[in-house]
Amino acid sequence: WGERVYSELKILDLKTGRLRCVGRGARYAAASLSPDGTRLVAVRTDENYRHALLVLDAATGAVLQTLPNPRNDFYQQPRWLPDGRRVVAVALSAAGKTLDLLDPATGTVQPLLPVANVNLTNPQPWGDYVLYNSPQSGVDNIYAVALRSGQTFRVTSRPLGAYHAAVSPDGRRLALHDYRATGARIVEMPLDPIAWTALPAPALADAPQNWQIGFQPPGSSVQAGIEGLHSLVLWLMAMVTVFVAALLLYCAWRFRESKNPKASRVSHHTALEVAWTVLPVLILVVIAIPSFR
Questions:
Q1: CB within 10 Å: which end of the chain, N or C, has fewer?
Q2: Other CB atoms within 10 A of residue 24 CB
């Protein structure tokens, strides 16, 4: 019990190859360098499990500011916005996760998404948006939330998942891990909000909820096709069930004993037998065509 473990921060200068250590003897994690390279924002957890976001001097490691955290939310993956004034971070509490926008100058905290049981990771500020990862549609993909309106968008729709988005220095392209059956590949795509899919509302869960009837929003075109085929088969089943039930009720009423004391001995009807053979075949063809797509 006498062992003490620390987590220190190190900064690597890519030009000179020099490695500097800042924040010795502390417990820091998930550090992010400000756009001008003069400050760091990092998460610190003390011996009493109190969590805090700290702004540090990148040269000396001195603590410049401790951001307020009255609810003791566990902050993850803080990132500076391009303006260098505000910070966005994943906030984890007993109620769930959200993305918080924090202003060190004023100490204000603005939740960008409702607190919900939705996994959120890797926030990446870009312009008036914050990109983030979430499996809210059943498949991990990249989403975005507008800072001003709170509107959420689906940025990628990869069938097996897209992860670890990174914005290019010129702000025009997005690099990401595109997961495939043969493994992950690093791909690029243009950053164009016009091509994004606007979502009707922020996700409140990344798993089905109690008493949920419909599917979650599809995370890929493959899932959308599966849902469309499911809906088609469901409606066909419902129509066949209603038709057969109505036919049974009609036959029971039409050929009841009081109305037909003498039973008919007709055992074959060519047209009827052709109909009940051809119609099921046609129904199966209707089901089969979209299943091949």
A1: N
A2: 9
Residue 128 main-chain phi, psi, to 5 deg? -95, 20
> Which parts of the chain fold into alpha helices (H)?
221-254, 270-291
What proportions of the chain, in percent to the nearest 5, are helix, strand and coil? 20, 35, 45
Cβ atoms 27, 47 nearer than 8 A = no
H, E, C per residue of 81-92: CCCCCCEEEEEE
Q: How high is the mean pLDDT of the chain?
A: 88
Q: Which letter does DSSP use for residue 181 in this model?
A: T
For residue 120, what pLDDT is reported?
93
Provide the token pair at 89.
């971070």
Question: Measured at the alpha carbon of residue 83, what is the angle toward residues 80 and 89, in degrees to the nearest 5?
Answer: 25
Alpha-carbon distance 28 to 52, whole Å? Answer: 10
Categorize the per-residue pLDDT at 86 as very low, low, confident or very high, splitting at 50, 70 and 90: very high
How many Å apart are CA 77 and CA 147, to the nearest integer? Answer: 18
- CB distance 88 to 75 below 8 Å: no
Decide if pLDDT at 203 tops 80: no
| Angle, CA 48 vertex, CA 42 and CA 53 arms, to 5° | 20
- The pLDDT tens digits of the residues spanning 135-187 come to 887 788 999 999 999 999 999 988 888 999 999 989 999 999 998 888 889 99
| Phi/psi of residue 122, nearest 5 degrees | 50, 60
Record the tokens describing residue 30, joined without a space: 């998930």
Q: Alpha-carbon distance 125 to 163, whole Å? A: 15
Question: Taking the CB of residue 222, how many other CB atoms lie within 10 A of it?
Answer: 14
Give φ, ψ of 51 to 5 degrees.
Answer: -100, 145
pLDDT at 245: 95
Q: Are 183 and 166 in contact (CB under 8 A)?
A: no
Mean pLDDT of 246-267: 85
